[in-house]
Specification:
By secondary structure, this protein is of the alpha+beta class. The chain is 41% helix and 21% strand. It has nine helices and 18 strands. The protein has helices at 13-20, 22-63, 147-156, 270-294, 310-324, 354-361, 370-378, 392-404, 410-475; strands at residues 73-77, 83-87, 94-102, 106-110, 124-130, 136-140, 161-167, 176-185, 191-197, 221-225, 232-236, 240-241, 248-252, 256-267, 296-297, 302-303, 342-344, 350-352. The strands form six sheets. Strands 1-14-3-10-11 form a five-stranded antiparallel sheet, with no helix packed on it. Strands 2-13-12 form a three-stranded antiparallel sheet, with no helix packed on it. It has a three-stranded antiparallel sheet with strand order 4-8-7. Strand 10 and strand 11 (232-236) form a beta hairpin. Helix 2 (22-63) packs antiparallel against helix 9 and helix 4 runs antiparallel to helix 5. The longest helix is centred in the last third of the chain and has 66 residues, at 410-475.
Length: 476
């Protein structure tokens, strides 16, 4: 703003202008306060939405049909140096005794010795096949007729076999051998070679492989289940055995036919325990947050940002019902959260009896199965009927979807309304600010003109006074 110091009139013009504009400035301030209030409500609703989405994520974890948390399994092995085991949700709880009679091994054969790694070999073709795999033909000519070059050619052919050079440490003068190793274990994956290379000459040697005395024979793994006369024996081409116990994968590490190994499959309660605790914590956090938004504190005489707002209290009540109401059409032994040791305290918050929760999840409570727990949170997870009853997790997720829907949800509608109010307020503030600025400029111009006019009058007055004084002197 242009400064008018009132040097001519001695008037505090800035103070007068501020006073004349005070009403207009007050209107702008009130509009800005309303804008701050709406922005605070926007932040509050966004925070509610964030917490609802977090609760929905937890509900989805508890209600997903695939890899359901209530079907998670632990596997305990009596000798982890002999076997490593993992279990999926298809595994049944139980204890199994196994013996590992043998491991699956890859077929390995070695060539006769050569003096150097780049010793010359004869030319021709070498046909290689592993089991019933694709037959590969290796051509040896003058460009690759050395031992190292043959190793490279075999590896480049991707014949299901890996060639390497080894040194047997012999003092015969020919310690370098080519070792062929099948890429897959199992008796069926034996290496076979048709050697069409030319016969040895004075300078070139025809590689020869001793299949009668393999470095390592191709073998299957063999595992026995049980210790009685009816023990079951399975063979596997690999050391990863998936077919013996449903849902359990055994990774065999060491064989000892005389050693009995115990495999125990039991419920893994940790994922479900974590998710249920997260559900309770998230629910309580939402209840606390909404209560703070709609509460009046008589001690501080402060009202919550959304006091009197039915939208958030309606959401709060619906979330409470979705959590606490029974799941219809399933057995009464597991149709509400209380079966898990979850209760509501005098502040309407959820609490957990950790001991009861562990007992239920571990399957130590009669009449409550894993299927019951799955139905408690996702009753219609396998149903194609959209009107079928839903479990707690499913109905929570669907409810929150409705709240947060941009077009039709309660939160979406309120947020859209607040945006409209904010846009309208911003327009009003801009309009009032323009009026204020124009009035301020008009007043400044008027006072500048006043100062100028008074300055001119004072100049004229001084001139006239001077002339009159001179006339008086002339008369004397």
């Amino acid at each position: 703003m242009i400064t008018i110091d009132g040097l001519i009139t001695g008037i505090d013009t800035e103070k007068i202008i501020d006073g004349l504009l005070e009403i207009q400035k007050g209107q702008i301030d009130r509009l800005q306060l309303r804008r701050q209030g709406i922005e605070a409500k926007q932040t509050a609703y966004e925070s509610v939405e964030v917490q609802l989405v977090s609760l929905q994520s937890i509900a989805d974890r508890l209600s997903r049909p695939q890899a359901n948390l209530f079907q998670s399994r632990n596997v305990e092995v009596s000798d982890e140096n002999a076997v490593f085991a993992i279990a999926n949700t298809n595994a049944s709880n139980g204890t199994y005794q196994i013996h590992i009679d043998s491991l699956a091994r890859t077929h390995q054969v070695a060539s006769a010795g050569f003096a150097e790694t780049d010793s010359e070999i004869t030319q021709g073709t070498l046909e290689i096949q592993v089991g019933d795999g694709e037959l590969k033909t290796i051509t040896v000519d003058s460009s690759n007729n050395s031992l190292q070059s043959l190793v490279n050619a075999i590896n480049n052919a991707k014949a299901g076999v890996t060639a390497t050079l080894v040194n047997d440490g012999s003092e015969s003068g020919t310690p370098h051998r080519m070792l062929l190793t099948a890429n897959k274990t199992g008796e069926a994956n034996q290496i076979s070679i048709t050697n069409n290379l030319a016969g040895s000459t004075g300078t070139a040697t025809r590689p020869a492989f001793d299949f009668g005395n393999p470095v390592q024979a191709a073998t299957d793994a063999q595992v026995r289940l049980g210790t009685g006369p009816g023990a079951l024996t399975v063979q596997s081409a690999s050391n990863e055995v998936k077919s013996l116990i449903q849902g359990v994968t055994l990774n065999l590490l060491a064989a000892d036919s005389g050693q009995e190994i115990q495999i125990r499959v039991n419920p893994n309660t940790e994922p479900a325990t974590t998710a249920i605790n997260d559900l309770v914590d998230s629910y309580n956090a939402i209840m606390d947050f909404v209560d703070d938004l709609v509460r009046f504190n008589p001690e501080t005489d402060q009202a919550g940002l959304l006091i009197g707002d039915r939208t958030v209290t309606d959401i709060q009540n619906e979330i409470r019902s979705a959590i606490l109401d029974v799941v219809p059409e399933i057995g009464t032994s597991a149709n509400r959260l209380s079966v898990l040791g979850i209760s509501i305290n005098n502040r309407s918050r959820l609490t957990i009896n950790a001991t009861r929760l562990e007992e239920v999840l571990a399957g130590r409570v009669d009449g409550i199965t894993e299927s019951d727990l799955q139905n408690l949170f996702a009753y219609n997870h396998l149903s194609t009927n959209p009107s079928a009853p839903t479990g707690i997790g499913t109905r929570l997720s669907q409810l929150i979807d409705g709240f947060t829907n941009i077009e039709s949800g309660e939160l979406g509608s309120v947020k859209e309304s607040l945006l409209d109010q904010l846009a309208s307020l911003n327009d009003s503030i801009d309009r009032q600010q323009r009026i204020f600025d124009n009035q301020q400029q008009d007043l400044i111009a008027q006072f500048v003109a006043l100062e100028s006019s008074i300055s001119e009058l004072q100049t004229t007055s001084s001139f006239l006074s001077s002339q009159l004084s001179n006339l008086g002197k002339i008369g004397k």
